[in-house]
Amino acid sequence: MKLSEKLSALEESTAPAPAPARRPRRARPANEAVGRLRRHVLAELAQSTTTDLQRDVRTAIDRALAQEATQVSAVERRKLVQEVVQDMLGHGPLDPLLADPAVTEIMCNGYDELWVERSGRIEQTDHSFRDEAHYRSVIERIVSRVGRRLDEGSPMVDARLPDGSRVNAIIPPLAVHGPVLTIRKFAPDPYTAADLVRFGTMPIALVPVFEACVAGKLNVLISGGTGTGKTTLLNVLSSFIPDGERIITIEDAAELRLQQPHVVALEARPANAEGAGAVQIRDLVRNALRMRPDRIVVGESRGAEAFDMLQAMNTGHEGSLTTVHANSPRDALRRLETMVLMAGFDLPVRAIREQAASAIHLVVQLERQPGGRRVVTAVTEVQGLEGDTVLLQDVFAWRSARGRDGGVDGELVPTGLRPRFVERLAAAGVSLPEGLFVGRAAGARVAVAR
Fold first, then answer.
1. Nearest Cα residue to 148 out of 168, 176, 120
2. Contacts of 395 (CB under 8 A, 6+ apart)
3. What is the pairing mode between strands 180-184 and 166-170?
4. Tens digits of per-residue pLDDT, 370-427?
5. Which residues, at least 6 apart from 172, have a Cβ–Cβ distance to it below 8 Å?
6. Strand locations in 315-371, DSSP E?
7. What is the DSSP letter of 24?
8. What is the pLDDT of residues 54-77, one digit of tens each?
9. Among candidates 156, 154, 191, 185, which has minimal Cα distance to 91?
10. Contact between 442 and 432 (Cβ < 8 Å)
11. How far apart, in whole angstroms, are the C-alpha atoms of residue 95 and residue 219?
12. Are 60 and 40 in contact (CB under 8 A)?
C-alpha cells in the first residue's frame, strides 16, 4: 500500500462518527384554519377570569369563528373544544391513554411517536402532540406539579401524576432525538392478592403464606427485572401489615398506596438549581429509624441505602419490606453485597453476607413471561451462612413444561421441604395450614403465550 493510501485510510479511521440520523417523522395532515382558531382561543382564554372553562372555550370558539369566517364542522368543533380543555387542564393527547384501563405503560419517543403497552404487548398509537413545543409544555407541567425541574442542568427526572402513576422524563443532550417521556400507570384501585391470583401472577396457596410471613414480621426482599410487578407485589404484601402498626414508606417517587390508618410516606428529593438540597433514600432510611417505626417499607434498594436497610432489619425493625432488581434470589443477595460495597464501607465480604443472611428471611422472585404475564417464579428462604456461602432453600419453585399447543406451560409448586420460618411464625402466634408445603395441590397452572 502506498503512503498516500495509508494516510487516507488513517484519516478515515480517525474521523469522528457521524451523528445518528433522526427517525423519520410521521406526516400529519395540516389544517391551518383550525390551528389559527386554536391560537386565538388560547390567547383569549389566557385573559379569562371565570371558572367554567368548558363554557368559556365554546364562547371563544364561536367568537373566533365569526371573526375569521372559518367553516368548521360540528365534529371538528367538538374535537377542538376537547383539545383546548386538555391543553389548559390536562395532558393533551395523553389524557385518553391515561383513561384507558387496558393501557399499563405510555412511552413517548417524540411529540408524534406515542407507544403503549396493552396486556404485556407494546404497540404504536395514532395519538400525537401538535408539535415539539406542545410536547415540552406537557412534560414541564407534569414535572412542576411535584416540585421537580427539567432543564439542561437537570436533564432527567422522576415524577408522578396525581393518581400515583410513575413518570420518567429525559431531554437533550442526554436524549439524542428529543425529549422522551415514560409513564407507568397504576390501577385506580390498588390490586389485591385476589387480583394477582386472578391474573395468574401467583397461586392461591401463596396468599396465606405471604399473609403469615408479613404478620409474623419476616423481612421480605422482592426481586425481579424491570416491569415484572415488584411494586405491585410490594403493595399487596404491605396490605397484610396489621392496622395497629406505624408504617413508614420511603421511595424515590411516592407510588405505594397503603390502606392502613397509620402510614407516613417519605419521598427523596433531587438537588436544586444550585446543586444543593438533595435528600437521598439513605438519608430518609436513617431518619426513619428516629420516627418510631413498626415497619419500614423501601420502594427499591438501589444504592448505599441497602446497608442502612440491612442494619435496620438487624436492629429490631423486623417485618421490613423492599425490592431489588435481580434475576434470581441468589443474584438479589449478591446485588445487596455490591450495593453495600458501593456505599464506600471497607467491610469484608463475609461480614456483609452475615448481615444479609441474618436480615433477609424470604426472597420472592418475579419474572415476566414471553406472553407478557408477570409471575412469581420462586419463593426462597434464606437459612443462614455456611462458610462463605449463603444457604438458600426454595419453598416454592417454578416448573416449566411444553404445552399441547407448542407453547410453554408453567406452574409454581411447593418443593416439599418444610421451611424453617414456620417455627418462627409459630413463636409469633401465627400458624399455617398443614400440608401447605407438600404435594402439587398448591400449584396453579399458568399458561404462557408463545
1. 168
2. 209, 379, 380, 381, 414, 415, 417, 419, 437
3. antiparallel
4. 877 899 999 999 999 998 899 999 999 998 866 555 555 688 999 988 899 999 999 8
5. 155, 178, 179
6. 321-325, 362-368
7. P
8. 677 677 767 776 666 666 677 776
9. 185
10. no
11. 39
12. yes
| Strand, coil or helix: 432 | coil
Averaged pLDDT, 3-25: 51
Question: By percentage, how much of the chain surpasses pLDDT 90?
Answer: 39
pLDDT for position 10: 45
Q: What are phi and psi of 159, to 5 degrees?
A: -145, -170
Would you give the DSSP letter of residue 245?
S
Which residues, including other chains, have CB under 8 Å from residue 144's CB and lie 6 or more apart? none
- 124-128: average pLDDT: 91
61: CB partners within 8 A, 6+ apart? 37, 41, 77, 80, 81, 84
The rounded distance, in Å, linking the Cα atoms of 23 and 411 is 42
Rounded Cα gap, residues 211 and 432, in angstroms: 10
Cα 206–Cα 385–Cα 208 angle in degrees, nearest 5 = 10
b/e string for 116-148 if b means 16 or more Cβ within 10 A?
Answer: bbeebeeeebebbbbeeeebbebbbebbeebeb
What string of H, E and C letters represents the secondary structure of 274-293? CCCCCECHHHHHHHHCCCCC
Please report, to the nearest 10 degrees, the dihedral formed by the alpha carbons of residues 85, 90, 92, 94 taken in order.
Answer: -140
Between the CA of residue 143 and those of 32, 159, 365, 430, what are the distances in Å? 31, 6, 32, 45
Reference 385, options 422, 349, 358; nearest CA is: 358
By CB atoms closer than 10 A (0-12, 13-18, 19+), residue 261 is exposed
**Block residue for cell numbers 425493625:** 317
303 and 339 Cβ atoms separated by less than 8 Å:
yes
In sequence order, the 6+-apart residues with CB closer than 8 A to the CB of 129 are 92, 93, 111, 112, 135, 138
From 219, 218, 193, 216, select the one nearest 206 (Cα to Cα).
193
- Cβ-based neighbours of 415, under 8 Å, separated by 6 or more: 393, 394, 395, 396, 397, 437
Q: How far apart are the first and last CA of the chain?
A: 54
